[in-house]
Design brief:
The complex is a heterotrimer.
Chain A (H helix, E strand, L loop, with lengths): L3 H20 L10 H22 L10 H16 L3 E4 L8 H20 L3 E5 L2 H17 L11 E3 L4 H15 L3 E5 L5 H11 L3 E6 L5 H7 L2 E4 L1 H11 L2 H32 L7 H5 L3
Parallel strand pairs in A: 1-2, 1-4, 2-3, 4-5, 5-6
Helix pairs in contact in A: 2-10, 3-4, 4-5, 4-9, 6-7, 9-10
Chain B lengths: L1 H21 L5 H39 L5 H20 L18 H32 L5 H16 L2 H5 L2 H20 L2 H22 L11 H36 L10
Chain C lengths: L1 H11 L3 H17 L10 H11 L6 E7 L5 H17 L3 E6 L2 H18 L8 E6 L4 H9 L1 H4 L26 E6 L5 H12 L3 E5 L4 H9 L6 E3 H12 L4 H36 L1
Parallel strand pairs in C: 1-2, 1-4, 2-3, 4-5, 5-6
The chains are: A alpha/beta, B mainly alpha, C alpha/beta.
Chain lengths: 288, 272, 281
């Protein structure tokens, strides 16, 4: 994170570059996309502002998310029962942000399992996810001072195919009977198969996904579910890192901005339809 | 340290910013990079990365067999299946009349046989499990614990029945009679008076019967109680509204997470 | 009365395998003893039908297969029905696949409809371009230049040698897109990268689970209707007057749904009895 002076120097430099580019007539710039460009700049600035605000010690309130509080409880339960924690980071590759978020949470869960000396099993569906997850777990164990507990085979590849992967994970659940099953990532139709099998073995289950259509299945079958944004907030929540919490606050402010834009656009559209204004807000907000 | 920390962050930042802001640049090379090359580079990397996964799989399953760990017999199937697919894909066609490459979908080849008689039934079986699991999950989870759970339960039933042909065969008058019975139960619980209960039941039944007789008992009138129309309304209105709200939240979450990666605020992919 | 409640409570703690058995029978028996329940098309299905009917004669239609064996029972009847509708109306069909499994499904559908039923000519009435890896990059590539992605079709023939590929260079050269999708990549990618930027109208058929994701796009007019799962397939078959697997599956689905609803009601009755008893004691 840049210090204040460095930050304002960089920001000033970028603004100056943009002004020069603007005065030069914005060569090569797709002007029909200016609105989206401004939105991205404003949202990014908002995120950066709140991140720096939190870094400087600003108070950020984060409401309790039961699913995340239960993660430590789940790992503790596995430790007491002498059984493993099963972590499923979704079935998609690292190009999906949800998979990335799942691997981030895996890092936090690994810290807990290394602290409590609980065995961790992470079957993955993609090779690149296997490498990234392995590095994350290795780093977590090393930071906790327990590199001796880490084994490469903790994170292992099963198959790319959706239902073959579900069958493989089900087999692991039924044979090894983990005490806790965590599903954090992008899921499709196999979500209910995994969750129901986990339920049948009596494991505590915590799921987190931004796959909208799978959320109801996880809510039905799991003990705790992180819905949508709660899943992306998990990293900030578990680490309590100021930068991440500031980012979360920035995200909330973006949502407030989007809500205000929707209401304002609704009002302006009504006025346009009534013929009271000549300016069609939809044509400006439509992404070209 | 430079290779493990600064360079990965630099690559992520440069490629991320190029792909993000490249969308605004009207230049063929940049457009080609953003639209085609960036994702294709990733697909090429992911395709070669399959070797890592395959080797890991063989190593684990092989270790299980050699050490005769619990369940080692299943590992034989895993390794056998892997080599069978390799043979069908790269070594033995089964139909010499077709070229390599298109042999995977051509009739008479070993690969096509494997797809039709092994992969297809296995995939279909796993997906079919959902039917059973939906039933057991619904049975266990759908309880009238509070108002929200009741709304979920009622809308779930309306959509499940209204969506299928059976729903369109159920007359709206049947639903109205059912509602009269439920209302009578509620009245009985609230007032605990037989006369009031009986009066409510009789009144409700009379109203519905007279109304139906006057209209001639059309199956889909009144609209409000016809299940297919009701399920359509639930689907298109509260359901879509909720879906849109969640989608907006998820979209913002994805944006925030991606920006954190691009700006180097999130460094978990290098283990920090 | 207490004895009845005790019986209900005991039944409520039944092993879930009994539930599986009842569901299995509920699905199996109607397949052997069909009920012939009438099928009524919903507005969403009607929109798809109307969109296809509104196409001018000899239109060029791009059909994309994004499903595999697991979702075949839901989506295959849709694609077969759609192909029948398109060929009956005399349109040219170009088939692509964003999933590798999709190519197998496409081969099967085209063999059944184009070859066996309509006896059409490959390369003049229909063409199978096949699967290309790359997910949404394939869609983006097709939007800019199809021939960069597809130099040959699925049978190894050079695309330049296929008569119906003349004047087809990008997505904008098509008159209509239909995406038969079971997940990612699928309808969302076609709408985002192909239909919206080029203005080519699109309809879709998806699994029942995915309908939630696509419905906002249908309501906003970005997608011309949606065939929602097997019920959507059955409704489409009814509209084109060609009942098939979709229609025959609807009896089983109807009974299965009814059985699930009865289980839910029964579960709630046991729940109420338990609550009453715990209050009493």
């Amino acid at each position: 994170m840049l210090k204040d002076k460095e930050f304002w120097l960089v920001a000033g430099g970028m603004s100056l570059a943009f002004i020069i580019y603007w005065l030069a007539g914005t060569p090569l710039f797709k002007e029909e996309r200016i609105v989206m460009f401004l939105v991205i700049v404003i949202m990014s600035a908002n995120l950066i502002y709140y991140t720096r605000f939190a870094r400087k010690g600003g108070e950020i309130f984060l409401r309790a998310i039961p699913g995340l509080k239960a993660v430590e409880e789940a790992v503790g339960r596995s430790t007491e029962m002498g059984k493993s924690v099963l972590y499923v980071p979704g079935i998609m590759d690292m190009d999906q942000v949800e998979t990335v978020a799942g691997v981030i949470i895996l890092g936090h869960v690994s810290k807990m399992t290394s602290r409590y000396e609980t065995s961790l099993n992470v079957p993955v569906s993609r090779s690149i996810v296997m490498k990234a997850a392995r590095e994350t777990v290795r780093e977590a164990y090393t930071m906790e001072g327990r590199p001796d507990l880490f084994q490469d085979d903790m994170v292992h590849y099963l198959t790319d195919d959706q239902f073959a992967y579900a069958a493989g994970v089900n087999g692991i659940m039924v044979r090894e009977k983990p005490a806790a099953c965590l599903y954090m990532g992008k899921f499709y139709a196999e979500s209910l198969i995994l969750a129901e099998t986990g339920n049948s073995i009596g494991a505590i289950q915590i799921a987190g996904t931004a796959s909208q259509s799978q959320i109801p299945f996880f809510v039905t079958a799991c003990d705790y579910t992180l819905i949508g944004e709660e899943f992306f907030a998990a990293s900030a929540y578990l680490s309590q890192s100021p930068e991440l919490m500031g980012g979360l606050k920035g995200q909330d402010m973006m949502k407030a901005g989007v809500t205000a834009t929707i209401l304002l656009s609704l009002l302006m559209r009504i006025l346009f339809d009534l013929g009271l204004i000549k300016w069609n807000i939809i044509s400006i907000l439509t992404v070209q | 340290m430079l290779w493990k920390r600064q360079i990965p962050i630099l690559i992520a930042t440069v490629v991320g910013l190029s792909t993000l802001f490249g969308w605004f640049i009207d230049h063929p090379t940049i457009e080609s990079f953003v639209n085609d090359d960036a994702t294709q580079w990733y697909d090429i990397l992911a395709s070669f990365a399959i070797f890592l996964g395959a080797l890991n799989l063989m190593k684990l399953q092989g270790k299980k067999i050699i050490k005769q760990q619990s369940g080692w017999q299943y590992s034989i199937f895993a390794i056998g299946g892997f080599f069978f697919a390799i043979i069908a894909g790269f070594i033995y066609k089964g139909n010499d009349a077709v070229e390599w490459g298109i042999h995977v979908t051509s009739k008479g080849t070993l690969f096509k046989w494997m797809f039709e008689y092994m992969f297809t039934p296995l995939s279909a079986t796993m997906f079919a499990l959902l039917a059973f699991f939906v039933a057991s999950a619904s049975y266990r989870a759908f309880r009238v614990r509070n108002l929200e759970a009741t709304l979920l339960l009622v809308s779930g039933i309306i959509i499940m029945v209204g969506r299928v042909p059976l729903g369109s065969s159920i007359s709206s008058w049947f639903i109205m009679y059912l509602l009269v019975l439920i209302a009578t139960l509620v009245v009985n619980v609230k007032f605990k008076d037989k006369k009031i209960t009986f009066g409510a039941l009789l009144g409700g039944l009379l109203i519905v019967t007279i109304w139906g007789s006057l209209l001639g008992w059309p199956i889909d009138q009144p609209n409000l109680f016809y299940l297919p129309i009701l399920q359509d309304w639930i689907y298109n209105n509260p359901n879509v509204a909720g879906a849109r709200a969640i989608m907006i939240g998820i979209g913002l979450g994805i944006f925030a997470t991606s920006i954190r990666y691009i700006l180097g605020l999130e460094k978990s992919y290098i283990g920090e | 009365m207490d004895k009845l409640f005790d019986l209900i409570l005991r039944a409520g703690t039944v092993d879930r395998r009994w539930i599986f058995l009842v569901i299995g029978l509920a699905v199996l028996l109607p397949l052997f003893f069909p009920l012939g329940l009438p099928i009524r098309a919903t507005i969403a299905t009607q929109k798809v039908y109307d969109a296809v009917e509104a196409l001018e004669g000899n239109s060029k239609v791009l059909v994309s297969f994004e499903y595999g064996p697991s979702t075949k029972p839901e989506i295959h009847p849709m694609t077969v029905g759609l192909l029948k509708h398109l060929f009956t109306n005399g349109h040219q069909v170009y088939v692509t696949c964003l999933w590798p499994d999709g190519q197998f499904m496409a081969e099967e559908a085209l063999t059944e409809v184009a070859e066996e039923e309509f006896n059409l000519s490959y390369g003049e009435d229909y063409v199978l371009l096949g699967f290309r890896p790359g997910n949404e990059a394939v869609v983006k590539g097709m939007v800019s230049n199809i021939r960069k992605l597809y130099t040959t079709d699925a049978r190894g023939t050079l695309v330049d040698d296929i008569p119906m590929m003349k004047n087809i260079n990008k997505v904008a050269d098509f008159d209509f897109i239909f995406s038969a999708s079971a997940g990612y990549p699928g309808t969302v990618e076609w709408v985002q990268y192909a239909s919206d930027p080029t203005g080519v109208p699109i309809s879709t058929g998806t699994t029942s689970i995915q309908v939630n994701d696509i419905m906002p796009m249908v309501n906003s007019g970005q997608v011309q209707g949606i065939l929602a799962g097997m019920p959507g397939a059955a409704e489409y078959e009814a509209l084109i007057g060609s009942p098939g697997i979709g229609t025959s599956g609807m009896d089983a689905q109807s009974i299965a749904h009814l059985v699930i609803v009865l289980f839910i009601v029964f579960g709630n009755i046991t729940y109420f009895i338990e609550v009453q008893r715990s209050k009493k004691y």
